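Q&A FORM
Asked by: J.P.
Topic: structure of DUF2783 domain-containing protein

PROVIDED:
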Amino acid sequence: MSRLDLSPRLTAPDAFLAALTERLRGLDEAETRAFSARLILLLANQVGDQAALEEALEIAAGGQEA
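REPLIED BY: S.T.
REPLY: Here is the structure written out as tokens.
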């Protein structure tokens, strides 16, 4: 049984993508990776459930359909 709710939950996905793209604008590869790592850790802390996070890693790696 999936621990993740994969149904669309963002109220404004295009706005989030635009904000993310803007934050990344002008960053070099190393800065982009550091930013992405910090964002992932912040969001992982928000989720807080190890099993759900491991499931998300598996899905992101292409091991399951999202």
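FOLLOW-UP: The mean pLDDT is 92.
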